[in-house]
Amino acid sequence: MKKIITLLAFTFSILSCTNAQQTEFKKEALENVMTTTDNTSITFQDILNKYKGKTIVIDVWASWCSDCIKGMPKVKTLQEQYPDAIYLFISMDKNYDAWIKGITKYDVKGEHYLTSDGMKGVFGKSINLDWIPRYMVVDKEGKIALFKVIEADDNKLIETLNKLK
């Protein structure tokens, strides 16, 4: 019985560590070069620096992603409820033109950047991207306050934004 309890405690501690929230972006993410809507290059670090001092809601999405498109009304509601946050849309589209058309077609309001190598690329791997849409929150000091939710109306997301007001 003692061995079983020890094994359960060990398993729980391992699982707790694997689910721990990241509070900082990995070097690979920060150095990742993205594209702006005016087709210039910028690193993710420079993007974060640009909005330092603000709460940032990151929406990782793609114009071809049906779940992302279905979630857009929830994002718009979030934007109405938390207008002081910066809404940073990072697209996993594979081509610039499709990305720009998607922003217009779905009337996506916010700051927009395109990754250079898609979901399985450097940026995607560095944030453990396994699904889109993916929402993250960065606090005013540039620390990750919420590492992962997949719904824009997730209670964790709302609670995080309320704490950061």
TrEMBL record:
The keyword Signal applies. Keywords: Signal. It comes from Flavobacterium sediminilitoris. InterPro entries: Redoxin (IPR013740), Thioredoxin-like_sf (IPR036249), Thioredoxin_domain (IPR013766), Thioredoxin_ResA/DsbE_sf (IPR050553). It comes from the Bacteria. Pfam families: Redoxin. This is TlpA family protein disulfide reductase. Residues 23-165 form the Thioredoxin domain. Residues 1-22 form the signal peptide.
